[in-house]
Design brief:
heterodimer; A: about 350 residues; mainly alpha; 14 helices; about 0% strand; B: alpha+beta; MetI-like fold; four-stranded antiparallel β-sheet
Chain lengths: ~350, ~475
C-alpha cells in the first residue's frame, strides 16, 4: 500500500493549498449567494426596504417646518421625488438579479452595512458593531463549553478505550450516544425547570442580574453565576460525542501493528499511550474540536434563546423575528467565512503533516 | 479490507442479527410501543383532531393549566377534577304566577375534594325569541348559605358567564362577605368564597378548609311566556387526564400521542431517504470514475460548510414550511453526507472483487452492477447511521417547531414544548407541559440509539462482544 502510494504523482504543497483555497472560495461564494437569494426571495426584503424609505422620508419631511408651508400638490411631488432618489441611491430600482449580485459582493467583501431595525447596546446601527458587541459573549459560553466538553470527553474516551467492551464501556457508549443525539436547548429547558425553578440553584437566564453590579469583581462573579447553567447544559449535550469518537479512534490505533510492536518491545504503558497511541489519534480529534467550536455558534441559536444569553445566536433569532435581512446576511456570511477559514487552515496543516493527502487520484 | 467481508453482509441477515442482541430487543420494545401508540390513535382521538387542536375555542370544557390526574397519588391530597353539570343534570320546575312563567333548573353536586376549584363558569342557551328574559343564577353552599351569582337580563340566545372574572359578582360577593363577617378581603376569588369552610377566615387559606358536602346551583328564568333553556355549570378542577392541560385548555395527552406518529414518520422518512440518496450518490461517484467522484466530493464539501440550521430557520421564517416541505428542504441539504463517504470508500474496495469481475465478464451494464451488486453490499454499513439520524431529524423538526417555525397545523412534541416555553411554563412550574413531551422525545431517541448500537455491534467488529 505504502509503496503504491509513493509511486503516485503528488502535488507540491503550494498547488495543494491553492487548489483547496480555490474550492473553498467557490463554496463560500455559493453559500453566500444562496443566503442572499433566500433572504431576499420574492422581493420581500426589498419591499420592506422601500417601505422603510417611504416612512423615513415622510417622517423627516413632516418634521421640517418649511415643508409644512408648501401647497399639497407640491408636498406630494417633493415626497415622491425624495423617495425615488433614495430608492435609486439604495439601488432598489434595479432588477433583482443585479441587486442580489450587489448584495453578494458587499457581503463577500465584508461590507456588512447597517441594520434595518436592530441596534447595539451603545446605539450603533452598524452591523459590524452589533456583531462585535455580541461575539465575546458567545465565545465565552460556547467556546469555553466546547473546549471543556472536549477535554472531559477525550479523557472519558481514553479510559473507555483501555477498558474496551467492558460493562462500563458498553453502558457509557449508549449513554454518550443518547446524550449527544439530543440538542442542548432540549436539556436547557429541562435544566431550567429543575435547577432554576425547583432547586433555585441557578438563575433562569440572562447574562447579568438586573440591575447589574457595578464593581468589576462582583460583575464578573455575577456573569459566572449566570454562565454556570448554560455552560453545564452545553457540556452535558456535547461531551458524549467526544468520548465516543475518541474511544473509537484510540481503539483503532491501539489495534495497529506499531502499537503491538511497541508492546512487544516491553515499553511502559504510559509511553505506549502517549507516544504511540495518542499522537496518531490526535489529528482527527483536533479537527473535530476546531469544527465544533465554529459550528457551535449555529447550534447556539436556540440554546441562547432559551437561556436568554445575549450572544450571536440570540442576535440571529432577534434579526429573524424583526426580519432584519442585512443582519441575517451579515451573520451568515461571517459564519461561512469562519468555517471556510477553519477548513483551509486545517487543510494547510494536514497538507504539511500528511503528504498522502496531496496525492492526485 | 479484511473487515469489509467479515461481518454479515445481507440486509436481512443484519436485521435478524441485530434483533437477537439485548440492546436490539430493548430498541424493538421501545419503538414497538411507540408504533402501537400511534396505531391506537384512531380509537380514541376525534377524527378532526388536527383542526380541533388549533381551534382554541373547542377546548372550553377543560380546565386551564391542570396537572395530570395521577399527581393525586403523589401529593396525597384529593385534587379536584372538573365537575360538568350539563343540561341533563338539572331538574326542571315550571310555575306560573300572575302571568309570569318561572322556569327553574336545579342541580345538586357533591364536592369532596381537598382543594378549591380552579375556575367557575355558567352557560345558558335559550331561545328567547328576541325579547329579553330575566335570569337568576343562585348558588347554595353545602352549609346552606345562598349566594346570587347572576341577576339580570338575558338578552341573547346564548350567555357565558366567566364567574371567576366577573366584576359584578366580585361586588356582590364583597357585599355578601361584609354582611357575614363585617370585613371585605383585598382579593376576592369566587371559587374560594363559594367553597371555603368558614367565611370569617382569611380567604387565601390552606386546602384543608374546603367545605365538603352537597352543593346546589339554580338557574331561574322569568318571562311572560314559556321558555325552554339549556343551562350548564362547570366547576373546573385542578387535575385533568393523563397528561394535564396547557394554558389553552388543550388535553396534552392527545397532543403527546399525536406527536408520536408525526415524529416517527418525519424522522424515519427523512433518515431513510437521505441515507439512500447519500449511498447512491456516493457509490455512483466512486463507481463511474474520477470526474463524477470529484463532483460528488465538491458537493459534499459545500454541504458540509454551509450552516444548515440558520438557513433552515431562515427558510421557515420566509416561506412558513409545512412538515412535508420541511422534509423536502432537509433532504435537499443532505443529499451528500457521511453515508456517501462510507459508500465511496466501500465502493473503492469492492470494485476489484471477483464477483464484480464475474458480472463484468457476463456483460452486466455498469448501472446494473451498481444497483444490484454494489449498493446492497453497502447498505448494512449505513444502518447504524440511519438509526441514529432518525432522532437527529426528529430534533431538527422539534427545534424549528420550538421556535414556532414548524408545521402550523400538526401538533408535534417540539411545538408543545415551544408553546410551553413561550407561555413561561419553565418559570411558573407547569412541569407536566414540559416534562411529558420531553420524555416522549427522549424515549424515541433512546429507542433509536439502542437500535443504532445494535446495528453497529454487528457491522463494526470493534464493538463486538467477546
Amino acid at each position: 500500500m505504502q509503496l503504491i502510494r509513493r509511486c503516485l504523482p503528488r502535488m507540491g504543497l503550494a498547488s495543494f493549498v491553492a487548489k483547496r483555497a480555490l474550492i473553498l472560495t467557490l463554496t463560500l461564494m455559493l453559500s453566500v449567494y444562496m443566503t442572499v437569494v433566500i433572504a431576499n426571495f420574492g422581493g420581500y426584503i426589498d419591499k420592506i426596504l422601500k417601505d422603510q424609505i417611504t416612512f423615513d422620508v415622510t417622517t423627516a419631511l413632516s418634521r421640517d417646518p418649511n415643508f409644512a408651508k408648501l401647497p399639497e400638490a407640491e408636498k406630494q411631488r417633493l415626497i415622491e421625488q425624495k423617495i425615488e432618489a433614495r430608492i435609486r441611491a439604495a439601488g432598489l430600482d434595479k432588477p433583482f438579479l443585479e441587486r442580489s449580485l450587489i448584495q453578494f459582493t458587499q457581503a463577500l467583501t465584508l461590507n456588512l452595512g447597517r441594520a434595518m431595525f436592530l441596534r447595539s447596546a451603545s446605539g450603533s446601527k452598524a452591523i459590524a458593531d452589533i456583531i462585535m458587541e455580541r461575539l465575546p459573549r458567545t465565545i465565552l459560553l460556547f467556546t469555553l463549553g466546547t473546549i471543556a466538553a472536549a477535554i472531559i470527553g477525550i479523557f472519558l474516551g481514553l479510559v473507555q478505550a483501555q477498558k474496551a467492551l467492558s460493562k462500563f464501556d458498553r453502558l457509557m457508549i449508549v449513554f454518550e450516544i443518547f446524550t449527544y443525539v439530543q440538542p442542548a436547548w432540549f436539556y436547557g429547558i429541562l435544566f431550567i425547570l429543575i435547577f432554576s425553578f425547583y432547586l433555585r440553584i441557578f438563575p433562569s437566564g440572562g447574562m447579568v442580574s438586573i440591575p447589574a453590579p457595578t464593581e468589576p469583581i462582583a460583575y464578573a462573579l455575577d456573569v459566572l453565576y449566570h454562565l454556570a447553567l448554560p455552560l453545564i447544559t452545553w457540556i452535558f449535550a456535547s461531551f458524549g460525542y467526544w468520548a465516543y469518537t475518541t474511544r473509537n479512534i484510540v481503539l483503532q490505533t491501539m489495534g495497529e501493528d506499531f502499537v503491538t510492536a511497541a508492546k512487544a518491545k516491553g515499553l511502559p504503558d504510559r509511553i505506549i499511550l502517549w507516544r504511540y497511541v495518542l499522537r496518531p489519534s490526535s489529528p482527527p480529534i483536533i479537527t473535530g474540536v476546531a469544527f465544533a467550536i465554529v459550528f457551535s455558534w449555529t447550534g447556539a441559536i436556540i440554546t441562547e434563546t432559551v437561556f436568554n444569553w445575549p450572544g450571536i445566536g440570540l442576535l440571529f433569532w432577534e434579526a429573524i423575528v424583526a426580519l432584519d435581512a442585512p443582519v441575517i446576511i451579515g451573520l451568515t456570511v461571517i459564519l461561512a467565512y469562519m468555517i471556510v477559514l477553519t477548513v483551509l487552515i486545517l487543510d494547510i496543516i494536514y497538507g504539511i503533516l500528511d503528504p498522502r493527502l496531496r496525492v492526485v487520484r | 479490507m479484511r473487515w469489509v467481508s467479515a461481518p454479515p453482509t445481507g440486509i436481512k441477515q443484519v436485521l435478524k442479527e441485530a434483533l437477537k442482541t439485548k440492546t436490539g430487543m430493548a430498541a424493538v420494545i421501545i419503538l414497538g410501543m411507540m408504533i402501537a401508540m400511534s396505531l391506537s390513535i384512531p380509537m380514541y382521538s376525534p377524527a378532526d383532531f388536527v383542526k380541533k387542536w388549533n381551534d382554541l375555542k373547542a377546548w372550553y370544557e377543560n380546565p386551564s393549566l391542570a396537572a395530570p390526574v395521577w399527581v393525586k397519588w403523589f401529593t396525597g391530597a384529593d385534587l379536584p377534577e372538573t365537575i360538568d353539570l350539563k343540561a341533563s343534570h338539572f331538574r326542571v320546575d315550571e310555575e306560573e304566577i300572575s302571568g309570569h312563567h318561572i322556569t327553574t333548573y336545579t342541580a345538586y353536586f357533591r364536592y369532596s375534594y381537598d382543594d378549591y376549584p380552579s375556575e367557575l363558569k355558567a352557560f345558558i342557551k335559550a331561545d328567547i325569541g328576541g325579547k329579553p328574559v330575566r335570569l337568576n343564577i343562585v348558588f347554595v353552599r353545602a352549609d346552606g348559605e345562598e349566594i346570587t351569582l347572576f341577576n339580570g337580563l338575558l338578552s341573547s340566545n346564548e350567555l357565558t358567564l366567566d364567574l371567576s372574572l366577573d366584576p359584578k359578582l366580585q361586588k356582590s360577593l364583597a357585599r355578601f362577605l361584609y354582611e357575614k363577617t363585617g370585613a371585605i378581603p383585598e382579593v376576592i376569588r369566587p371559587e374560594i368564597v363559594l367553597f371555603s369552610k368558614s367565611l370569617s377566615q382569611r380567604i387565601e387559606n390552606a386546602a384543608s378548609d374546603v367545605l365538603k358536602g352537597r352543593y346546589m346551583v339554580k338557574f331561574q328564568l322569568i318571562s311572560d311566556r314559556k321558555i325552554s333553556a339549556e343551562p350548564r355549570f362547570i366547576i373546573y378542577g385542578k387535575v385533568f387526564g393523563l397528561a394535564g392541560t396547557d394554558l389553552y385548555r388543550r388535553d396534552l395527552w392527545l397532543g403527546i400521542i399525536w406527536g408520536a406518529p408525526v415524529a416517527l414518520a418525519f424522522g424515519t422518512v427523512a433518515a431513510v431517504t437521505t441515507a439512500l440518496l447519500q449511498v447512491v450518490i456516493g457509490a455512483a461517484g466512486a463507481w463511474f470514475g474520477p470526474k463524477w467522484d470529484e463532483l460528488v466530493q465538491r458537493l459534499a464539501d459545500f454541504l458540509l460548510i454551509i450552516p444548515v440550521l440558520p438557513i433552515l430557520i431562515l427558510i421557515s421564517v420566509i416561506y412558513r414550511v409545512t412538515i412535508w416541505s420541511l422534509l423536502g428542504w432537509v433532504i435537499l441539504f443532505s443529499v451528500v453526507g457521511v453515508s456517501s463517504k462510507i459508500a465511496r470508500s466501500i465502493t473503492f474496495q469492492i470494485r476489484e472483487e471477483q464477483y464484480i469481475e464475474a458480472a463484468r465478464t457476463y456483460g452486466a451494464s455498469k448501472t446494473r452492477m451498481l444497483f444490484y451488486y454494489v449498493i446492497p453490499r453497502i447498505m448494512p454499513f449505513t444502518f447504524a447511521l440511519v438509526a441514529l439520524s432518525v432522532p437527529t431529524y426528529i430534533f431538527l423538526e422539534a427545534s424549528l417547531s420550538f421556535l414556532g417555525l414548524g408545521d402550523p397545523e400538526l401538533p408535534t412534541w417540539g411545538r408543545i414544548l415551544g408553546d410551553a416555553y413561550s407561555a413561561g411554563a419553565l418559570y411558573q412550574g407547569y412541569w407536566w407541559w414540559v416534562i411529558l413531551p420531553a420524555f416522549m422525545i427522549m424515549l424515541v431517541s433512546l429507542g433509536f440509539t439502542l437500535l443504532s448500537y445494535a446495528f453497529d455491534k454487528i457491522v463494526n467488529p470493534r464493538l463486538r462482544e467477546e
